Amino acid sequence: MMLQPFRPSLISIAAVLWPALVLGSSDADSVDFSRDIEPLLEDNCIQCHRERKHKAGLRLDSKSAAMAGSYFGTEPVILPGDASNSVLFQRIASNDEDERMPPRGAPLEASEIELIRRWIDEGAEWPDEEVETDFELHWAYESLQPTELPQPRNSEWARNEIDIFVLDRLQREGLEPSPEADRSTLLRRLSLDLTGLPPTPDELEAFLGNDSDTAYEEQVDRLFASPHYGERQARGWLDLARYADTNGYEKDSIRTMWRYRDWVIRAFNSDMSFDRFTIEQLAGDLLPEPTLEQRIATGFHRNTMINAEGGVDPEEYRVAAVVDRVNTTAMVWLGTTLACAQCHTHKYDPFSQREYFRLFAYFNSSADIGPSDEPKIDAPTPEEALEEERAVAELAILDERLSTWTPALAGELALFEEEQAQAGKSWSTLRPKTFSGDEGTTLAMLEDGSLLAVGKELARDTYDLLFDLPEVEVQRLRVDVLTHEALPNGGPGRADHNNFVLSEIEVIATERSSGEEHTIRPAGASADFFQEGSPTWPAESSIDGDPSTGWAIAGGTDHPHQLVLDLAEPLDGKRHSHLRLRLAQHYGSMHVIGRLRISFSQEAGSGATLVRPDIEELLTEAGDRTPEDQARLEAWFLSAAPSLAEARERKRALGDRHRPPTSLVMQELETPRTTHVLERGSFLAPGEEVTPGVPAVLTPLHEGARTDRLGLARWLVSPENPLTARVTVNRFWQQVFGRGLVPTPEDFGSQGQAPTHPELLDWLALELQRDGWSIKSTLKRFVLSSTYRQESTASPELRQRDPQNILLARGARYRVEAEMVRDIALVASGLLSETIGGPSVFPPQPPGIWNSTYSADRWNTAGGPDRFRRGLYTFWRRTAPYPTFMAFDATSRELACARRPGSNTPLQALALLNDPAFIELAIGLAGRLLREGGDQDRARVELGFELCTGRLPDAREVAMLLELLASERDHYLNSIDSARTLVSSEVDLGTNELDPIELAAWTVLANVLLNLDETITRG
Amino acid sequence: MDPNRLRSTTRRWFLKDCSVGLGALALGQLLARDGLGQGTSAQTARLPHFTPKAKRVIYLHMAGSPSQLDLFDYKPKLEELDGQPIPASFIENERFAFIKGTPTVLPSPYGFARHGESGAELSELLPHTAGIADKLTIVRSMHTDQFNHAPAQIFLNTGSPMIGRPSFGSWLSYGLGSDNENLPSFVVMISGSYLPSGGSSCWGSGFLPTIHQGVQFRSKGDPVLFLSNPEGMDRASRRRSLDTLSELNRKRLEESGDDEVATRIAQYELSYKMQTSVPELSDLSTESQATLDLYGVTPGQASYASNALMARRLVERGVRFVQLYHWGWDSHGTNPGDDIITSLPQRCQETDRATAALITDLEQRGLLEDTIVVWGGEFGRTPMNEKRNGSKFFGRDHHPHAFTMWMAGGGFQPGLTHGATDELGYFITEDPVSVHDLHATLLNQLGFDHERLTYPHQGRDFRLTDVEGNVLHDLLT
Asked: Does residue A652 sit in the same domain as residue A668?
């Protein structure tokens, strides 16, 4: 079989980018201007030698100007075919620091200078820039072509095609692959890559004990079948989807979006084909009769931020969201950075500003426009949907029952009337002698002895009423709050909302003999109605001495109400001359009573039900009722009958039931918006009108393709589009091998880096399409390869030769990502809650992180199992993300992110050593070792080491840890209080029974184990 | 040049030449990233473009935006027009955050006087600032194009109102690295009740490697998150456990040959050093009583004054960019808590003495010469009374067209008042200074050509000043 060379020039591009790899290699391919020379000029020269700047009159940013030479074209600097006499070459190659270009900073690398020399010597080929449509097609836009496999020597090492490509390249570089990693390393690597969780000791034992040829593949299949697989894959996708639990920007309010997150997890678990995965997220709502899940999937593009700040122009931020959708779509599926084309035609890649706005047009007709988070839909889980259905059915039955008048109720009402007839007659109205508001409310007395608030409207006031006491015994006092047409909205409250808060009632009696006033504490207060909710506002609050509580009536402001005070000792009209009532209403914003009436009773409470004054009137009035009054009474009794109390309570409970979550979705406007090119990207400067369409350099749309998001989504995953498959397979490669075949997964354009193994990339992309876009098949191909299974340790020579492991002569090794740092510790401690999905959770974080200017949202740390959920589920607030995740390079999720950096900082050390969330897990791990590790220190140390690193420690490692254990035991023996402090915890970690000294010593050791490089490294 | 290759070279150098300790190695280098990241040790290879006048910046951001008309920009004409509707020509096509209808003119209730030899005109609310008037370069002609807090703050910090660009301090950290191996090169401190509206995006590193982002020193608890050992673990225990950790990691280093392990070992050692260097830094009890009095600091009490003193201690120790935010200048006049009668004087009282003390203290220690101090809000305030929902309290709405900032030290012309506004203080009439101009000028003093301090991202070279900005030589000595 002939080896068919695949764009051989790419090999030399790799050579340019990684000169260390090929110094001394004798690749004699000719130099290519756009790939080899232009980047050098751009990086080193054109800052000073370009239009508008042209130092020494030289421009190197255009062919004609550069060839014409310096001093505005009078002195040539490039003599094609003669580098040594070309000033350009002389100046960059000069040893004289005053001569050498560039004038500041490091000189060009020898290999770079050599490239310039060769380029000039070979004729200084510089393609004409004017012929834009006719330029050499950038590799990433070329269609996928079937590649014939190379034929490396000694190919028995290869298990699949990946290995053939890798081995071939290695041999051309004069390298050999590394041996296979040991089996415990392999299992940990597999487990972390596929599920994000380290293997348990049992899993490890089972694998090490299985010698069959299929043992490895069995593990692979087991891990693919784990429900944690979807969690692992979702983690990376959520960075691309910029998934978060808040809206972003200044207010950063909370949104409910976790159903989208769970959709992603489920999609990966069920191995939804990537084309369907794409279509449902970009345009699920436009599919015929979309399912709930397909609509939830469109949350992908509702993860954009929403600005709810006062005074902003909603259109500005609507445009910003659409721009984000265009840029994110381009990055995630096309590996293309379009952001610059928003304001001007792309400088480096073949995208015009007009083409940018044709893509923009696809997303421009969605219904969302801030500051609200509409459109959103009810998004119950299947279980919740069922529950909801039951609740709705039960409510219908209850409503029926609570609105149907029955003979039984009529009988019950008759008895009730008898009881009320007795109770209601005992009240006599007290007319105050003086009455006023302390703060200045004017009270006017009406004919019936009630008082109406008129005049100055105050936020709060205390009404002071003085009565002459009749010479009788007063057992009870009653405050009626009444409606009146003179009140702004009819009362009983004075404000428009008709509510009030009666904060405190003070009852003061005057001694006839001395004239002294003294306060009488009522024994109890009750009312026919009070405001429920959180907090509640019951009658008792008006006599509890706490000015911040009180009696209020929201929910019942359509009617008058009564409040009754039972006096502990009766007021004696013979002993007391006057009664003073002070009704304090401190709440503010005019929560004050609009009309009230005071009455008294000489009888102690009979226990009869208190009734609204207007109904009470009906009940106690003599004579026949009008039919209207009878109907009113019956309607009221339906809401008050004791026999229906249970049904009412049930209805209330159902009304308070857990509501299914909502989710933000994409939805098209009925009339699409017209789209204009926005000049300089500004929403205030609309220009030419454009229709939806895709950039000319890419695969054309099918004829008759839809002009909406669905049309775009189908085009993205059409087999003719080479980018989606290349970009997708590359991202998964990056996830497993630590670095993409294209190291810039967000940019496959000319400013990104070229692929290191172009033939392999295209072969994998084609396989992805042939497999029906199955991600599990793609990942399985990766992890079954010999390339994947190599050990990650390497000789110093190999490291020096290929520090970045570009050639794949060894396994990948990298610090795990932020969420996994936490997950590994959770698993090791045995505290992990394996629940999948659901609302985001609040593990411990330091106080003060959530101080924001405008929000009352609080981080309520979970006390139960939700404290120990995988990192993926931690609540993601864009303006204040979980600090330990941020220390480990997580993003704020404001914008899509295709790769996180892998920093290595002292702040990470501090977090992992001291974050109480990690200390808690160290205590948990210590407790687990004491409980499950047998009686011997050595066995416990071994278990702990294995739980953290997935392998047993060797003798030296055990010795180091035992030494630490001994010193800490000594230390805590002498400071038992410190031991107790160290191992105390807000929640039960299953360590309460353990000796604090032992537990503290083991906690220090567990803290070390969780901080090991090996623990947080996937090797 | 491939940054990854440079990184590995630096890493090798670090391993070879730094075995004795961290030495003069900049923190930035220590924080070098592994394979997934962009190369970052490039910043240590970058020297300034030319000899700098200043080596560091203390930026005093008055979040919420103080009223220039009540502090720096005296307008007697407002008194004449007191309570009259603002002429329609001023507010045609204007969009306000809160003002509705035709607002009325609001004069300043405060007296102004000239101070120092320079005769700088300042309000009676800033008596201490008046005492250092001759040190200041007052720019009365700042303007911005954002009129809401978050975007305006982000614009002032990053040169763009949209989230995602590196902040000034990040650019400086990227450009110069740090002078202190035990501290970050960019430190942020907050006083007042709240974070600035722009949140941590104000000191984010955008597309620059995250090691360049501002590290927020907290005013309560650990100045750096998780700096303290867990309760019940003392420093000796921590040392012993770090020794064991280090030994185990060294064994791993030998076996794997992975340089990343070596870096990790060094980072754990640095974290141990920070456990003492940072508390030492924030222990103000070593300052003399005279200094504490100068600033008005009560040790142990979180305040703008103690942050100002901390700022001096930080720059003394080689930190490049210290930014203080003091919240509460948003004087809308909806209640006494945000008006110009009660609230504005309180803010001045909280900051005036310490701000002046900082300048005096820096000068006494010879630091003012090469330290730039910047003072200002994110925009200005209207010459009109906001009167939101008929409020009876006096206040002013957001105003992007003109506001005042001042600079001191670092080669700025002392005793200069630059620029002017119209008789109402509404529009600039002389020498407008844009945010980009300010950035270009600051970078210039720090030794950078603002057009050449760039970073490649998403297909183009980005810079702090985007495609604008002029160095304002008029402001400089």
From this structure: no
Q: Between B383 and B267, name the one with better pLDDT.
A: B383
CATH top class, domain B47-220+302-475? alpha beta
**Where among A130, A148, A174 does a domain terminate?**
A130
- Residue A52: is its pLDDT beyond 60? no
Residue A75 within any structural domain of the chain: yes
**Residue A668 belongs to a domain:** yes
Amino acid A671: pLDDT: 92
Contacts 24+ apart (CB under 8 A), A677-684: A677/A353, A677/A354, A677/A357, A678/A319, A678/A342, A678/A357, A680/A343, A680/A344, A681/A323, A681/A342, A681/A343, A683/A313, A683/A315, A683/A316, A683/A319
The string of pLDDT tens digits covering residues A679-716 is 766 777 788 899 999 998 888 999 899 999 999 999 99
Please check whether residues A442 and A575 belong to one and the same domain: yes
Do A804 and B35 lie within an 8 Å CB cutoff? yes
For A675-752, where are the E strands, in sequence order?
Answer: 675-678, 686-690
Interface test mutation site (partner A, options B233, B378, B399, max chain A beta carbons within 10 A):
B233
> Is A311 close to B164, i.e. CB distance below 8 A?
no
Of A844 and B37, the one with more pLDDT: A844
Residue A898 domain flag: no
> How many CB pairs below 8 Å do chains A and B form together?
257
Mean pLDDT calculated for residue range A666-691: 87
pLDDT over threshold 80, residue B39: no
Q: What CATH number is given to the structural domain containing A455?
A: 2.60.120
Q: Are B220 and A852 inside 8 Å of each other by CB? A: no
Lowest-confidence pick of A54-58, A242-246, A897-901:
A54-58
Are B271 and A907 inside 8 Å of each other by CB?
yes
Q: Are residues A433 and A559 in the same domain?
A: yes
Shortest CA distance from A753: residue in chain B: B2
Residue A563 lies in a domain: yes
Tell which of A816, A851, A884, A910 to mutate to test the B interface (max B CBs under 10 Å): A910
List of chain A residues whose C-beta atoms are within 8 Å of the C-beta of residue B161: none
pLDDT at B4: 38
Nearest to B338 by CA among B63, B48, B9: B63
Give pLDDT, residue A734. Answer: 96
**Looking at the partner chain, which of B36, B241, B267 has a beta carbon nearest the beta carbon of A739?**
B36
Q: How far is B357 from chain A (nearest CA, A)?
A: 29
Domain that holds residue A63: 31-130
**Of B127, B175, B51, B60, which is closest to residue B407 (Cα–Cα)?**
B60
Measured distance CA(A325)–CA(A709) in Å, rounded: 11
Give the residue from A938, A946, A944 showing the smallest Cα distance to A963.
A938
For B458, the closest of A337, A914, A979 (CB atoms) is A337
Closest-CA residue in chain B for A313? Answer: B95
Asked if A337 and A323 sit in the same domain, the reply is yes
Token pair listed for A650: 């049930």
> Is B271–A957 a contact, with Cβ atoms under 8 angstroms apart?
no
CB contact under 8 A, A1013 and B252: yes
In this structure, the answer to whether residues A317 and A448 fall within a common structural domain is no
CB A500 within 8 A of CB A593: yes
Out of B36, B199, B240, name the one closest to residue A964 (CB): B240
Overall pTM > 0.80: no
Question: What residue has token string 């990086």?
Answer: A43
A1004 and B162 in contact by Cβ < 8 A? no
Q: Mind listing the pLDDT tens digit for each residue in A415-446?
A: 888 887 776 678 899 999 999 999 999 999 99
Q: CB–CB of B209 and A916 under 8 A?
A: no
Select from A337, A853, A900 the Cβ nearest to the Cβ of B459: A337
Expressed in angstroms, the distance from the first to the final Cα of chain B is 38
State which residue of chain A sits closest to B274, comparing Cα positions.
Answer: A906
Domain count, chain A: 5
Can you tell me the mean pLDDT for A889-905? Answer: 83
Is the complex ipTM higher than 0.90? Answer: no
When the pLDDT of each residue in chain A is averaged and rounded to a whole number, the result is: 89
Burial of B335 (0-12, 13-18, 19+ CB in 10 A): middle
